UniProtKB/TrEMBL annotation:
Membrane topology (UniProt): Multi-pass membrane protein
Name of the protein in its database record: Cellulose synthase-like protein E6
Organism of this sequence: Hibiscus sabdariffa
Subcellular locations according to the entry: Endomembrane system
Gene3D superfamilies assigned to the protein according to its UniProt record, in alphabetical order: Spore Coat Polysaccharide Biosynthesis Protein SpsA, Chain A (3.90.550.10)
Amino acid sequence: MGGTQQVVVKERANNLPLFVTKEAKGKLAFRLFSSSIFVGICLIWAYRVANIPRADEGGRWLWIGMLFAELGFGFYWILTQAIRWNVVRYHPLKLNLSQSSDDKLPGVDVFVCTADPVVEPPTLVINTVLSAMSLNYPPEKLSVYLSDDGGSQLTFYAVVEAARFAELWIPFCKEFNIEPRSPEAYFSHGFDVPEETANTQQRRSIKEQYEYMVKRIEAVINKGSVPEEVKNQHKGFSQWNCNVTKQNHQPILQIVVDGRDTDAVDSNGCRLPTLVYVAREKRPDCSHHFKAGAVNALIRVSSEISNGAIILGLDCDMYANNADSIKEALCFFMDGERGHQIAYVQHPQHFDNITKNDLYGNSSPVLNKVELHGIGGYGAALYCGTGCFHRRTSLCGSKYSEAYKESSNWGMRKEDKRTVYELEEASKVLATCGYEKGTQWGKEMGLVYGCPVEDVVTGLSIQCRGWKSVYYNPDNIAFQGVAPPTLDIALVQFTRWSDGLFQIFLSKYCPFIYGHNKIKLGAQMGYCVYLLWAPSSLPHLYYAIALPFSLFQGIPLFPQVSSIWFIPFAYTTFTLTAKVVTDDVSKRYHREIMNFGSTSIMFTVISTLAMVNLLSLVGIVLKMFLWGSDVGKLMPQVVLFGLMVSVNAPVYEAMFLRKDKGRIPASVMFKSIALASLAFFCSFKVDPSM
Ligand SMILES: O=c1ccn([C@@H]2O[C@H](COP(=O)(O)OP(=O)(O)O[C@H]3O[C@H](CO)[C@@H](O)[C@H](O)[C@H]3O)[C@@H](O)[C@H]2O)c(=O)[nH]1
Ligand SMILES: [Mn+2]
């Protein structure tokens, strides 16, 4: 081949597309179906408005309430259509990327956040760290940072142990190409190979080493402090003087593995990735902004040490499952045509502890498999906090510009001649409390402060600076986390999210205002599906309350089955989402039985509603059988009501039948019976005609 020809071939290889976009199947069918539902909704609204009872008729206010509830349902439904209308999927073309050489690849910094050694045990944290260190990527371009908001030397001790174990674990992972890359997940899933191969022997030996390490760490945790002889083995421990507490300490920072060091090698003699432990400064009089503050400190610290152009953020329980996830993400960022527009690539949150029936609805299949693709179709994938690859520049506040297309010299890393000590001291300054004063950190730079769901609002502000984002949900799951295993933890999490998301809607970040002319209308609507998640519960609540009362008082709220007006109602299926339906009666989460067991106010609400339904049911049955009352004209309500009562079955069971510790406590039960009876008999007085 002549010289010119060679150049042409090379150029073409560089210009190969690195990802493709595919539209979801069945788009037309969906759009037709969706339009027909819209017609149904309009008919329901028309029916409600046209049939409002006169002031002298019963049930006027109940009816007007229904009108508002159905307007609410309908508008929310319209918002949800925005994220189903245009579902697209992006597919990376990894083989095309592998045609460009390693030295073109950008540096990648992985951030792992932990906050408390009790709630988030150090062995869990180091499994995430180890899984990140062993990702398939050139080690001299990979750095892992652990942010420890617990400021705990127990966690630091576990990290020191993990660094040593990494020397065995990384070559093992790469030699046998195993997945998942978290040792705990790998060994606990029982990958038993029948015949004695080199792999089995080596696996057994590494498993032993792993278990031995876990034992050592647990012994130290049980003791509550690190023994003197262990402390003497690593200079890092000297940073914990007697004044260090979780809320009050100087910045603590230790480069545990220095990736520049040619002597930092694994058992095969290959270089190790950089590993850094950071506990940013904490002072009682200085707000630390939770995870957002921790991530922003890491952004600065990492810019001093490795300055990777790509940042992967992981919660401490999200281990890497797919070993090639970095290269897949790079396909999006490095695509010659569109890559320069992309600020981040978000993976869904997957959990490895989901039970068969997904008792608390944690796996959110509609969200992960449809909606997030749908909003991603507008180039506006949500940033969900964990499992997300960011471009450093866009995360640090820069505006998008076409000029990025020309200037993508990813591979460069500046030569740094400073000693580890000098580097550590320079980095500590960036992790002090005072550093952010008077700067744009927490506003235009880094993660946005002041909202419990800092991630979503940060993603929105990045998009409003002109960037695009990609949602990517590969079959080979990239990251796996831990879903809340009890109902109250799950509810607290949902409350924090729905509350925080609604705050965004009410703030200056409301997508319709903040995103106006900056992101597409469909994306604005899509954001609002989540931001209005909390108020969207109000129409549900109204249905749950109005239905039993109206039924007991004999007020029809729906057209009779024989009426033509019944058709649109039957078509829209406004039933309550049956997240709690399970007939399993075993005790623990893995045996899939609901765990109430606490006196949380949320359980009082749930059981009071269930009691209102139950009392009405008793009332209706009495009316029918004792007084021979005709419930024919109430048929649609009776059906809906029957569904509602059956959805509540686990609640009745937990109140009256169960004896285990997960039952609804007696105090909650009595409270809810009292409240429900009160509400019930008040309504009884209001309408003496029944
Ligand atoms: O002061 C804090 C508090 C939390 N974290 C870390 O933040 C992560 C998420 O906290 P967690 O308690 O697990 O909350 P989740 O509800 O599971 O988090 C989800 O929701 C958050 C927004 O509410 C996102 O930031 C998370 O990425 C997302 O996984 C964990 O790694 C924590 O260690 C800190 O580093 N510092
Ligand atoms: Mn979590």
